[in-house]
C-alpha cells in the first residue's frame, strides 16, 4: 500500500498539470460546434447534401488559384465547409463555396489552437506520442487511486469542492471524486491513448482482429491516377459516391497528395458513429471515374471498434446529454490534476517527514 501511495502521489505531482490542461481543453472542444454557430457567419445554415449543391460549391472552392488540399463538408450541426491548405492555412466557407473566414496561423482561431494543443501539444506527431503516454499514465493514476480509495470507501462523501483547503480535506475529496468519476476517466483516457498510440490501439483490439488484418483492410488502393483535370465534373464525382452508398452522408473530399494519387471521398453511413465516417470512394483525377471503394461496415471487427474511439472521446454521439457528461469528465480531470499538483508541490516530502516523526515518537 505504501508503494502504491508513493507512486500515485509522485505521478500526480509530475503529470497532474498536463492532465488537468488536457481535461480542460477537451471539455471546451466538446462544444466547438456550438461556439462556431455563435461566432461565424452561416454556421447555423441547414446542411445541404444534394449532389448539385455540393458539386457547385466544391467546383468553386477548387477553382481558386490558391485552392485547399481537402474539404470537410458541412454537417447537421455545423453549416460550414472547413478547408485545409498547406501548413497552418485554413478557412471556413459557406455551402455555396464562398470563403467567410480564413487564417494563416493556428493562433488566429481559438478552436484551432485548442485542438492543436489537445491532440498534438503544439508539437505534431511527437506531441501525439507524449499525449498518448500521458493518457496511459492517467489510467495508472486512476487505478492506483481506486486502490487507495477502497479502504476508505465507508467514509465516502460526494462534494464538488473540498470541505476546506487543508491537505487532509483535499486528499479526502480527491479520492472520493476520483472514485466516482473513474468510469468516465477510464473511457476518456483509454480512447485518447488509443488514438495517439497505434501499438496500444492494436493491443486492445488484438482479441478481435490482428494488427496485420486491420492494416491491410485500411490500406488505400494500389491504383495510379492521372493528372487532375481542370474541368473535372465534381457533381458527377459526388453523385457516383452517393449512388454507390445510397443514404450515406458525403463528409470529406481530398485532392491527390502527390502525382499519381487518387481523389478520395469519405462518406458516413447511418450506422457509423464516426462523424466523418470511414466509408471511402476513390476517383481518377483525370476522368472523375470511381476506381475503388471501401465499405466501413465490412471492415474487420477490431477496426470497427477502433472507429468508435473518436466519437466516444469527443462526444460526437449521444447528443447534448452525452456532451454534458464528457464535459463533466474533462472538468473533473482538470480539478483532480490541479489539486494533485497543489498538494504535492506544496509539500512534496511531507509524508516522508511525517513517517520520520512517527518513528521518532515511537522510539
From TrEMBL:
Pfam families found in the cross-reference section: PepSY_TM (PF03929)
| Species for this entry | Caulobacter rhizosphaerae
The record's section on InterPro entries has:
PepSY-ass_TM
Keyword Lyase attached: no
Q: What is the protein name for this chain?
A: Iron-regulated membrane protein
Ordered alphabetically, the record's keywords are: Membrane, Transmembrane, Transmembrane helix
For this protein, the parts annotated as crossing the membrane are 12-31, 129-150, 177-197, 324-347
Amino acid at each position: 500500500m505504501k508503494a502504491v501511495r508513493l507512486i500515485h502521489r509522485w505521478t500526480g505531482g509530475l503529470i497532474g498539470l498536463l492532465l488537468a490542461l488536457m481535461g480542460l481543453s477537451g471539455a471546451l472542444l466538446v462544444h466547438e460546434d456550438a461556439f462556431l454557430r455563435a461566432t461565424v457567419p452561416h454556421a447555423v445554415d441547414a446542411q445541404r447534401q444534394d449532389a448539385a449543391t455540393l458539386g457547385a460549391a466544391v467546383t468553386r472552392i477548387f477553382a481558386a488559384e490558391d485552392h485547399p488540399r481537402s474539404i470537410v463538408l458541412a454537417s447537421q450541426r455545423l453549416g460550414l465547409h472547413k478547408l485545409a491548405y498547406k501548413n497552418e492555412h485554413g478557412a471556413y466557407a459557406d455551402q455555396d463555396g464562398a470563403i467567410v473566414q480564413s487564417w494563416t496561423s493556428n493562433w488566429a482561431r481559438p478552436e484551432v489552437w485548442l485542438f492543436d494543443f489537445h491532440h498534438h501539444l503544439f508539437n505534431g506527431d511527437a506531441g501525439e506520442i507524449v499525449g498518448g503516454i500521458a493518457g496511459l499514465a492517467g489510467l495508472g493514476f486512476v487505478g492506483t487511486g481506486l486502490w487507495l480509495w477502497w479502504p476508505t470507501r465507508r467514509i465516502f462523501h460526494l462534494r464538488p469542492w473540498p470541505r476546506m483547503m487543508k491537505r487532509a480535506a483535499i486528499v479526502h475529496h480527491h479520492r472520493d471524486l476520483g472514485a466516482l468519476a473513474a468510469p468516465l476517466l477510464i473511457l476518456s483516457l483509454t480512447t485518447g491513448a488509443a488514438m495517439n498510440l497505434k501499438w496500444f490501439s492494436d493491443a486492445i483490439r488484438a482479441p478481435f482482429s490482428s494488427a496485420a488484418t486491420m492494416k491491410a483492410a485500411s490500406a488505400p488502393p494500389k491504383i495510379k491516377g492521372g493528372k487532375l483535370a481542370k474541368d473535372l465534373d465534381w457533381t458527377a464525382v459526388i453523385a457516383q459516391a452517393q449512388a454507390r452508398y445510397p443514404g450515406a452522408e458525403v463528409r470529406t473530399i481530398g485532392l491527390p497528395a502527390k502525382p499519381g494519387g487518387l481523389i478520395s471521398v469519405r462518406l458516413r453511413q447511418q450506422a457509423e458513429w464516426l462523424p466523418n465516417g470511414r466509408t471511402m470512394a476513390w476517383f481518377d483525377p483525370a476522368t472523375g471515374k470511381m476506381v475503388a471503394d471501401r465499405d466501413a461496415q465490412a471492415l474487420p471487427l477490431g477496426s470497427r471498434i477502433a472507429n468508435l474511439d473518436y466519437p466516444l472521446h469527443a462526444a460526437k454521439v449521444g447528443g447534448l446529454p452525452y456532451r454534458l457528461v464528457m464535459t463533466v469528465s474533462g472538468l473533473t480531470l482538470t480539478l483532480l490534476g490541479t489539486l494533485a499538483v497543489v498538494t504535492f508541490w506544496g509539500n512534496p516530502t511531507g509524508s516522508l517527514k511525517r513517517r520520520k516523526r512517527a518513528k521518532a515518537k515511537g522510539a
